[in-house]
Amino acid sequence: MMRKNLTAVLAATLLVGPLAACGSSGGSGSGAGGSGGSVTVGESTSLSGSIANLGQTGLQGLQMAVDDINAKGGLLGKKVKVVSADDNAQPATGAANARSMITKDKAVALFGPVSSAVASAEEQVAEQYKTPIFFHTSNDVSLMTKTFTPYAFQNVPNTTMEPRAVADYLAKKVGSKQITIATFAPDYSFGHDTVDGFLQALKKLHVNYKLVKQEFPPLGASNISSYLSALVSAHPQYVFNAQYGGDLVAFTKQASQFGFFKDTTVIAMYAYAPLDALGSAAPTGAIGFDRAAFWAIKNPEMSKFVTAYKAKYKKYPTEWAILAYASAQEWAYGVKKAGSFDSDKVIKEIPGATVPTIIGDMKIRECDHQAEVPEYVGTISKTASSQYGGLHLYDNIFTAPFNDIALTCDEAKALQQ
Amino acid sequence: MDSGSIITNLIGILTTAGTLFMVAAGLTLVFGALRLINIAHGSFYMYGAYFATTLSAHLAGAGFWVALVVCPLAVAVMGALVEVLVLRRLYRREHLTQLLATFALLLIFADIALRLWGKDVRSIKPPSALSGHFQFAGAAVPIYNLFVIGVAVLVAVGLWALMSRTKLGWRIRAVVDDPEVLASSGTNVPLILTGVFALGALLAGLSGVVIAPQQAVQPGMDAEIIVAAFIVAVIGGLGSIVGAAVGSLVIGVVETLGAVWTPSWASTFIYALMILVLAIRPWGLFGEAER
Fold first, then answer.
1. Is A17 within 8 Å of chain B by CB?
2. Cα–Cα distance between B209 and B22 in angstroms, integer?
3. Which residues are listed as membrane-spanning (chain B) (predicted)?
């Protein structure tokens, strides 16, 4: 039965596939002691597969922050080096990378991966080796509640905050009208949590809605026509879509061919990257949200960063790049205050502090190490922005304030074990 | 279900089936003639899409139509080179060697694609003649989906005509059954094998170009499609073009109706179906039991 064997071998090859594609790059540091020389920080993230763009631009943001630190003479007289590795979105690979960065490369701080599942695995490694870790992309609220450790910091609107911000915006828009809603999200914890958070927030805001369809296509599935057909058939007035990156681009292109955006308002993470990929095909009138919209954050440091980033990478910075940069600034702030790279000293300086970053002053809450960052929501403009290369950005941008959307410290503490 | 929903779902089924069929047909054609499962087949699909994004970025207006002709041919050339330079040496080796070699090719092609195109998500606009939709029996019918289905039907009919109505098709089938006799009758067997492999690559490349205006063109799409195409080929029977067509339709139905009725189980059904087929007919619905 040759064919049967073939099938088994092929199946095995396909399953082993992702493991074979990992590797690490970058130089290694020379430890934390003494003056002169260098220190190393590590970022293990997703650099391949369908979420590679999130990982890559995050890493670029971190690299630029470190370059800027080095250009000003380094930290405590040392140059900072970045080591990076691809986690293939696998928790085991991420944890192994993090461990190797700490033990082999002597990394004094870690910066976070894309996937929250990987982040959770790395958080354990960070705690075990007493090394600070800064999450700038993965945003599962349980990283700071259920599995909280004093070594972890989260600089993203988490899975509670993000959907609440969007629900606030929608509630203001629809008032007491009855509306029909469908949801569409990738089939893993982030997708389910975000959708649940959104619906709960709507309930809390007394929005009069009827749920007509819920779908969870697999993460990274580019051919979603079957799921989309089901969604179109349900004729919802609003669709809350928790997809991002390439998945969201594929959704938008296929949905617009159905004329879906005419009668349905899609609410999705139309941040800079998907808007850039879509170009003039951007769904005007849809509601977008972004964790760090560079065009809405008005301060000289941000403009300087945007210009430098554009010059270096020929693109505007994604929210992932911006928040990675701010995270590096946060770590550097802690090191300077502590006057040392020693983890236990560094992590004492950050909670409760207000760190000046490119996104403005970023306060880090003591109870759960959540950065008090806002979420940006807006309606995608019918007119292309002349300032930003013809992109369709948001009209009437709404900046959801942290205190309106975050768990209270009491709530967060109750969830911490 | 009202008539609008039935039509919408039918379009979903046929679009899914159409894109899958074009890739799976190439995979199964190559297996039939060369007895080789080419994991790197997914790379041809991805390169078709990437070539199309690059070409249409440089050619305004008619860019898509030019890409539709030029890019599959470019991928076919790529396929011919791969066959001549690498795979030809592996025909008499064990299947495991072939699998590992083509898997290595997939990884190498993925790395090259990263160098050439980076990690950004890319997309192209459908040509204006194919964008938009019209209303039919209460359903919005996207014109582009009809185009995808149409191309897949043309490919299916073309392949059927080639295999059963031409001398070349007869030779291809003879290569499968008795290469020695065919060679002794004066046919250039290696040339036929290269040709079949290039044709398989062309079909994958064509599918890549056709999906580029509809889906996100990005890293990882090579591995995603090869898994799906392989499932189709296994269900239909490796080596059978009819099997690839039926297998694609089966997957289209299971995915689409699964998404409508039990959204979060749709992909599980597909794997369950593959296991079921393997358990009852290990050679697939239209394959032949090993001689």
1. yes
2. 11
3. 6-32, 44-60, 66-87, 99-117, 137-163, 191-213, 225-253, 265-284
Task: Give me the residue label for tokens 């020693």.
Answer: A342
CA distance B186 to chain A (A): 30
**Looking at residue B78, what is its pLDDT?**
97
* CB-based contact A38:A2 (threshold 8 Å): no
Would you state the pLDDT for residue A30?
43
Query: pLDDT 10s digit of each residue in chain B, 291 long?
Result: 677 778 888 988 999 899 999 999 999 999 988 888 899 999 999 999 999 999 988 887 788 999 999 999 999 999 999 999 999 888 888 888 989 999 999 999 999 999 999 888 888 888 889 988 888 887 888 999 999 999 999 999 999 999 889 988 888 888 877 778 888 888 888 899 999 999 999 999 999 999 999 888 988 899 989 999 999 999 999 888 999 999 999 998 888 887 777 766 767 888 888 899 989 988 888 887 764
Beta bridge partners of A71: none
Q: Euclidean distance between the first and final Cα of chain B, in Å?
A: 46
Q: Are residues A141 and A168 in the same domain?
A: no
Give the best residue of B102, B143, B215, B278 to mutate against chain A (max A CB count within 10 A). B215
CATH number of the domain enclosing A204: 3.40.50.2300
Task: Provide the pLDDT for residue A349.
Answer: 96
* Chain-chain contact of B224 with A233 (C-beta, under 8 angstroms): no
Q: Tell me, yes or no, whether A91 and A183 share the same domain.
A: no
Rounded CA gap, A157 and A137, in Å? 9
A145 and A215 both lie in a single domain: no
Count of structural domains, chain A: 2
Q: Do B95 and A2 touch (CB under 8 A)?
A: yes
What CA–CA distance (Å, rounded) separates A117 from A112?
11
For chain B, the residue count is 291
Q: Report helix, strand or coil for A40.
A: strand
Residue A368 lies in a domain: no
| Cβ neighbours of A216 in B, within 8 Å | 263-264
Closest by CA to A21, choosing from B231, B116, B223, B201, is B223
Chain B CB contacts of A214 below 8 Å? 263
**Residue ranges of chain A whose pLDDT lies below 50:** 1-6, 8-9, 15-34
N-term to C-term CA, chain A? 54
Six-digit token string for A46: 């997703």
Q: State how beta strands A354-357 and A287-290 pair.
A: unpaired
A contact residues 214-253, partner B, Cβ 8 Å cutoff: 214-218, 220-223, 225-230, 232-233, 245-247, 249-250, 253
**Where are the extended beta strands (E) located within A136-242?**
152-154, 179-184, 209-215, 238-241
pLDDT digits (tens, 9 = 90+) for A208-248: 999 999 988 877 766 677 788 888 888 899 999 999 888 89
Are A152 and A174 in the same domain? no
> What does the mean pLDDT of chain B come to?
89
**Where in the sequence is the domain holding A136, given as residue range(s)?**
3-157+296-363
Q: What global pTM score does this model have?
A: 0.81
Q: Which of A341, A363, A385 is the last residue of a domain?
A: A363
Residues 151-210 of B with CB under 8 A from A: none
- Establish if A369 belongs to a structural domain: no
Residues of A in contact with B227 (CB under 8 A): 14
Whether B240 has its CB under 8 Å from any CB of chain A: the answer is no
Burial A4-22 (b: 16+ CB within 10 A, else e): eebbebbeebbeebbeebb
* Domain match, A284 and A310 both: no
Q: Which pLDDT value is given to residue A11?
A: 54
CA distance B76 to chain A (A): 24
User: Would you say how long chain A is, in residues?
Assistant: 417
Quote the CA–CA distance of A46 and A24 in Å, as a whole number. 12
**pLDDT score for A170:** 94
Q: Do A220 and B220 touch (CB under 8 A)?
A: yes
Chain B segment 121-160 residues within 8 A of A by beta carbon are 121-123, 125-126, 131-133, 140, 142-145
